[in-house]
Amino acid sequence: MKKLMVIGALGLMLAGCGMEEESVDNASAAEQEVQELEVEVLTEAKGETGEWTLEAYVSQGSEAVNDADEVKFEVFEAGKKDDSVKTDYTDVKDGVYSVKHTFQQDGVYYFIPHVTARGLHTMPTQQVLVGDVTAEEIQAAEEAMAEAKAQMMDNKESGMEGMKESEGTKDGMENSEGHSGH
Predict the structure, then answer these.
(1) What's 86's domain CATH number?
(2) What distance in Å separates the CA atoms of residue 70 and residue 122, rounded to the nearest whole number?
(3) pTM higher than the cut 0.70
(4) Count of structural domains, the chain
(5) Do the domain assignments include residue 170?
(6) Which of 127, 57, 130 is CA-nearest to residue 97?
(7) Does some domain include residue 146?
(8) DSSP characters for 68-126?
(9) pLDDT digits over 49-89, tens only?
(10) Which domain holds residue 55?
(11) Do residues 82 and 93 lie in contact, with contact meaning Cβ atoms separated by under 8 Å?
(12) Where is the composition biased (Basic and acidic residues) (predicted)?
């Protein structure tokens, strides 16, 4: 009987230790949860031609990120993405990355900070109105950007469908091979 009680007590102690280790493992897993990389465009959305300071604030959780792997600022006039200009940042302070850029003519532009930091990548887009721009120009720019985004999404989806179809073909071949001898 004493042996049984000793074995039972040892079992309870071991179970208690196992539960303690499990709760420590759960806490460290929660601490290691990846927090989203956030990029906030600080550049004004409207202004005059001339030199501008393009700025983006980069953070993860409540921490400013000053050690990004890459920050490139892309600027292009609406409808002219192929003529975009990408420039590396020239300054960073308290998570704010910046570079000087000159807008030489009126128009609707897009500013995209491409940020890679801590294994994550994000690239928000901001429309920038420079000088005198009509409502029609703004609307045309927004429609062109929406169309470009939709086309990009269609391309991604068709690529995924192509992968699924090729997987289905592979499965189909395996199934037909499996049935060919019967």
Answers:
(1) 2.60.40.1930
(2) 11
(3) no
(4) 1
(5) no
(6) 57
(7) no
(8) -SEEEEEEEETT-GGG-EEEE--EEETTEEEEEEEE-S-EEEEEEEEEEETTEEE---E
(9) 999 999 999 999 999 999 999 999 999 999 898 899 999 99
(10) 37-132
(11) no
(12) 154-182
